[in-house]
Amino acid sequence: MDNRPFTFDIALPGGIPSTYSNHITRRLSSMRGQYADEETYAALLAGGDALLYEVYEEQVPEKAGELLHGISIVHPGKVGDEYFMTKGHFHAEIATAEVYYCLAGQGVMVMETPEGVWAVEELRAGKVLYVPPRWAHRSVNTGSEADLVTFFVYPAHAGHDYGSIEKQGFRKLIVEQGGRPAIVDNPRWLPPEQR
Ligand code: S6P
Ligand code: ZN
Q: In terms of C-beta density within 10 A (0-12 exposed, 13-18 middle, 19 or more buried), how is residue 126 classed?
């Protein structure tokens, strides 16, 4: 691709970009081992491979200096009492940050460092979230009907490291309790010195 400036539109209050070169879809089957309620996960999967989230990206060269950006859409739903969410990752180049801007919906970003320091921040339309270098991040849709739509931008050489999150998940889970989202401990999570 050439390196001329380019523009694109995203219909507000949160839609699909008018142009994009990459569309990533993630279904229930790609989240094996990620939801705490494994029985409900297996039962849901037996009934069909639901589409959990989608990413629309405009591709740029994946090298330092470039910025990758696009739209992430997490659909509403739950596995047991745990809300639909992204897999979550560290950046492979761990010292790279990311900015999210929430365009529509309700949710949270679950984050943690390799040392196990954690944070959960609310996402709602209009909210900007800065994910600092070294913080793994996962978007969770806590809405009952609407998509959670965010615009993201991060260094194009950052890459994705899914490994440690796939093994044991994040330290905190986001579950529905009494009709509201709650932050609870992940029983599978171990501190770094016990892994
Ligand atoms: C990339 C950025 C987002 C996520 C997307 C899907 O650094 O954080 O584009 O890739 O939200 O999440 P995941 O964890 O499946 O890549
Ligand atoms: Zn990221």
A: exposed
Given the CA of residue 150, which atom of ligand 1 is nearest to it?
Answer: 11
- Written as six digits, the tokens of 158 are 């950052």
Helices (H), 23-73: 38-46
Judged by DSSP in three states, 194 sits in helix
138 DSSP β-pair partners: 110
Local confidence band at 1 (pLDDT 50, 70, 90 cut-offs):
low
Among protein residues, the one whose CA lies closest to atom 6 of ligand 1: 86
27-36 pLDDT, tens digit per residue, is: 999 999 999 9
Cβ within 8 Å of residue 6, ≥6 positions away: 58
Going from the N-terminus, what domains does the chain have, and what CATH number goes with each? Answer: 22-187 (2.60.120.10)
Q: Give the CA-trace dihedral at 39, 41, 45, 51, to 10 degrees.
A: 170
**What type of residue is 73?**
I
pTM above 0.90, yes or no: yes
